[in-house]
């Protein structure tokens, strides 16, 4: 029985076509759909019992699933793209994420042709397992502050890897603790007693025969992390070196080379390329944000249509909680954000691929923008997604707190995204630096790409919004101009404040809070703009483009409402115009309402991937919640183990004293 079928009938767009729009293309949709079903139908990938497992069982279970996934990849001859989707739908953080997601990209981006030829085939056949060992106990954000040393010994043509202090211990790398045989280790390069910056080195950590750590290497897991199950399927590790020697050709040498004689040669490649793997991964994290948020939203939307509270006076059905305006005002902006993040990630991927191609041709001019966009959008989307998942839990009331809702584990797995691959505040400060530089160069350099609007700063500073009615806000030009003006005005005002400081670094530190707000406004502008640009494309299917238009306005006007202080303080909007935007937002929520279930069905998530009783496709929530309760190990017996030992004596004592 489909308890949501009436809801599905209300929708006025072609869901199958929306699935394609969400996936990006029919090929992407088919590929992802095939992998989702492959995983959902395979009992090895069952995950309901995961939160009940102890750490050792949990990790072993992950190893079993990873091995099975690898067997499928080999047996079915899956492409790298298919394998990526397969791992995604297995939905269990594992050492393989770092192997494929960071170790291999680090070698691809920073290795020479010779190094790639040697290491990539081994890694791609999984004959070695690698991780990305950058962060240390004492330093994560400040990469230049890393303490591990790689000292070149001209006599033996080797680097000596060493951990000189406790705080230089590598700390956090996923896959490092128990599984990796190799790592790309970031360390201070020391040649002839001189420090030459931080570089990456391929270091073997464990024997390929018996997996024991090699001499001079201390390696282990850093311990339990937040939440049951969740990220504890990953062996985040600690690593120390005691004068471990590696051959010279294991320094990743695309950026700088060290010769046999101990000479440092710089190639034409900019130093920043050493940070290139982070640019790549941040871009993938934006795509992951749309997946995580859409998952939470799918659960909360379906459950909000099933759940009824209040509103019945004559014994008829109570009100579906999704019909409360307050529920809509919390849920629909998140639904719109999931779509917005999906489309901005699609754009970011194309920007990244373009930059990658240019880098391969030794053209580096677009790298700073790629860094600013990946850093800023990673920060913006992961913050909104982490907050959004928690909001979805609240939207599901008490049942959202049950692990079987799928939301607690999703939250616990997701929240470190605000920290890993760059703390979100530290990354926004990078964007701010880029924007301040752009503003300072306006006189002699035409801004391009995502900062092109700064070229129109004079008019953006003067012209105020012309919107007169609520309908006036349904105009891409009016909305984009509002976001451009806000971002430009905030950036210029900050630049003016900065100019008052004699020392720019001191000014930057003092105004950091305002600078982060400038960076956020710039990144929100990018997301809004890319959503409108998406709508310029040919999007087939009855009603699909129209529904996306509604979501685009919800996303933009919700932000405008939430940050109306900025829009008012910069003088671009009047209070009346801000309240017209809010009135339009209410109308838009009414337009989303009949399509809500279809809009989350369009994510095309299997019940396996959602992992949620509240988010079941068929809406059959209550019987399944009731059934699941009886599967809890506590309900194996009526009288719990420990009762006779610890509780009964107390009860007896009470009875005894009652007699007295
Ligand atoms: C399917 C796929 C799955 C994915 C798998 C993974 C799943 C996830 C699993 C979890 C995995 C978690 C895995 C993990 O967590 S791995 C560890 C991740 N760690 C971090 O992200 C550390 C964050 N810190 C940094 O990135 C740097 O130290 C920053 C940037 C903060 C400072 O830096 P620095 O101290 O040097 O100072 P500077 O500010 O003077 O900058 C100097 C210049 O460099 C430019 N610059 C800076 N950065 C970049 C860049 N990236 N590309 C290009 N350029 C860059 C910058 O604009 C400036 O340029 P200019 O102004 O001089 O022109
Ligand atoms: C689950 C997980 C997986 C990880 N996986 C890996 C991995 O595979 N490989 C790896 O190398 N690392 C990994 N990391 C480490 C991760 O990249 C770092 O934790 C991250 O970069 C943040 O650095 P930090 O811990 O030093 O934070 P800190 O920099 O110490 O941050 C602490 C606080 O200080 C603030 N702060 C720091 N600097 C500034 C500044 N300049 N201005 C203003 N505020 C500032 C931050 O905003 C934050 O509030 C992982 C971390 C986690 C949680």
UniProtKB/TrEMBL annotation:
This is Acyl-coenzyme A oxidase. One of its GO terms (cellular component) is peroxisome. Its cofactor is FAD. Residues 14-129 form the Acyl-coenzyme A oxidase N-terminal domain. GO terms for biological process: fatty acid beta-oxidation using acyl-CoA oxidase; lipid homeostasis; long-chain fatty acid metabolic process. Signal peptide: none annotated. The keyword Transmembrane helix does not apply. It is found in: Peroxisome. Keywords: FAD, Fatty acid metabolism, Flavoprotein, Lipid metabolism, Oxidoreductase, Peroxisome. Its main location: other. Residues 275-436 form the Acyl-CoA oxidase C-alpha1 domain. FAD binds at residues 135, 174. Residues 476-652 form the Acyl-CoA oxidase C-terminal domain. Belongs to the acyl-CoA oxidase family. The keyword Oxidoreductase applies. Transmembrane segments: none annotated. InterPro entries: ACOX_C_alpha1, Acyl-CoA_ox_N, Acyl-CoA_Oxase/DH_mid-dom_sf, Acyl-CoA_oxidase, Acyl-CoA_oxidase_C, AcylCo_DH-like_C, AcylCoA_DH/ox_N_sf, AcylCoA_DH/oxidase_NM_dom_sf. Coiled coil: none annotated. GO terms for molecular function: acyl-CoA oxidase activity; FAD binding; fatty acid binding. The active site is at 421 (proton acceptor).
């Amino acid at each position: 029985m489909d308890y949501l079928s009436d809801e599905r009938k209300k929708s006025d767009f072609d869901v199958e076509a929306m699935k394609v729009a969400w996936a990006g293309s029919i090929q992407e949709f088919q590929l992802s759909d095939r992998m989702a079903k492959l995983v959902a139908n395979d009992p090895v990938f069952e995950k309901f019992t995961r939160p009940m497992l102890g750490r050792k069982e949990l990790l072993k279970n992950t190893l079993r699933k990873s091995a099975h996934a690898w067997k499928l990849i080999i047996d079915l001859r899956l492409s790298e793209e298919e394998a990526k989707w397969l791992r995604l739908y297995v939905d269990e953080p594992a050492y393989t994420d770092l192997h494929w997601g960071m170790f291999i990209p680090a070698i691809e981006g920073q290795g020479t042709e010779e190094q790639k030829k040697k290491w990539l085939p081994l890694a791609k056949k999984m004959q070695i397992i690698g991780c990305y060992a950058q962060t240390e106990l004492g330093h994560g954000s400040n990469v230049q502050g890393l303490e591990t040393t790689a000292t070149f010994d001209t006599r033996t043509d080797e680097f000596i890897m060493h951990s000189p202090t406790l705080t230089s211990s590598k700390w956090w790398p996923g896959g490092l603790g128990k599984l990796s045989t190799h790592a790309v280790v970031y360390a201070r390069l020391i040649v002839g007693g001189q420090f030459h910056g931080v570089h990456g080195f391929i270091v073997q950590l464990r024997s390929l025969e018996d997996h024991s750590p090699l001499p001079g290497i201390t390696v282990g897991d850093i311990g339990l992390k937040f939440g049951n199950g969740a990220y504890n399927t990953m062996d985040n590790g600690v690593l120390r070196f005691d004068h471990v020697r590696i051959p010279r050709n294991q320094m990743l040498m695309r950026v700088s080379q060290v010769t046999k004689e101990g000479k440092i040669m710089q190639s034409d490649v900019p130093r920043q390329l050493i940070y290139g793997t982070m640019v790549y991964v941040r871009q993938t994290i934006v795509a992951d944000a749309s997946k995580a948020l859409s998952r939470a939203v799918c659960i909360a939307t379906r459950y909000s249509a099933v759940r009824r509270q209040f509103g019945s006076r004559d014994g008829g059905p109570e009100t579906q909680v999704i019909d409360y305006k307050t529920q809509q005002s919390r849920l629909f902006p998140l639904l719109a954000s999931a779509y917005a993040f999906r489309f901005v990630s699609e754009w970011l991927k194309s920007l990244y691929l373009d930059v990658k191609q240019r880098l391969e041709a030794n053209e580096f001019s677009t790298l700073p923008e790629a860094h600013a966009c990946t850093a800023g959008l990673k920060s913006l989307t992961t913050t909104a997604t982490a907050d959004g998942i928690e909001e979805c839990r609240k939207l599901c009331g008490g049942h959202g707190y049950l692990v079987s809702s799928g939301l607690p584990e999703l939250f616990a797995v997701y929240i470190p995204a605000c920290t890993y691959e760059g703390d979100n505040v530290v990354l926004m400060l990078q964007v701010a630096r880029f924007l301040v530089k752009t503003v300072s160069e306006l006189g002699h350099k035409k801004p391009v790409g995502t900062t092109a609007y700064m070229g129109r700063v004079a008019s953006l500073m003067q012209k105020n919004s012309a919107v007169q009615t609520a309908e006036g806000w349904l105009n891409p030009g009016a909305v984009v101009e509002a976001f451009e003006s806000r971002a430009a005005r905030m950036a210029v005002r900050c630049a003016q404040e900065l100019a008052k400081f004699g020392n720019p670094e001191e000014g930057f530190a003092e105004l950091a809070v305002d600078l982060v707000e400038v960076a956020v406004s710039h990144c929100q502008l990018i997301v809004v703009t890319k959503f409108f640009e998406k709508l310029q494309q040919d999007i087939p299917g009855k009603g699909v483009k129209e529904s996306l238009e509604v979501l685009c306005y919800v996303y933009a006007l919700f932000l405008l409402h939430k940050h109306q202080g900025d829009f008012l303080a910069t003088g671009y909007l009047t209070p009346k115009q801000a309240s017209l935007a809010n009135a339009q937002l209410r109308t838009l929520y009414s337009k989303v309402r009949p399509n809500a279930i279809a809009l989350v069905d369009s994510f095309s998530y299997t019940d396996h991937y959602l992992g949620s009783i509240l988010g079941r496709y068929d809406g059959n929530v209550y019987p399944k919640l009731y059934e699941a309760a009886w599967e809890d190990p506590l309900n194996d017996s009526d009288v719990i183990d420990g009762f006779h030992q610890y509780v009964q004596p107390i009860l007896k004592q009470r009875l005894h004293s009652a007699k007295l």
